[in-house]
Amino acid sequence: xxxxxxxxxxxxxxxxxxxxxxxxxxxxxxxxxxxxxxxxxxxxxxxxxxxxxxxxxxxxxxxxxxxxxxxxxxxxxxxxxxxxxxxxxxxxxxxxxxxxxxxxxxxxxxxxxxxxxxxxxxxxxxxxxxxxxxxxxxxxxxxxx
Length: 145
Known about the structure:
By secondary structure, the chain is of the alpha+beta class. Helix content is 30%, strand content 32%. The strands form two sheets. Strands 1-4-5-6-3 form a five-stranded antiparallel β-sheet. It has a two-stranded antiparallel ribbon with strand order 2-7.
């Protein structure tokens, strides 16, 4: 399992008249968190596009539990549970400083050749980076046990 947590504070323009973060902004928050996790794996969007790889979202699901508020520090934990093949699955847990779960979400992306726009298997260089990280996480987990 690969996991990363990103924190942010919703801006004033991201809340609705009730003072709650507008529901569509959670999609943006999850996208930002996923991008940051991939950046930490040396798989940022610019690098992928330079390698002629695109990863469009084909599915996004969210379950809202409690609202987030303006300027409230929230954490978005992004999890990759397994190695991708043609589809790349991400899970998100959004919580506040008190540890209350605000929402849970998941998204599915596919690997697409930038030129042909056809789906493809996970590129080898991506699989190698992910396998190395999974191996590192498993070794770290075993040492902690």
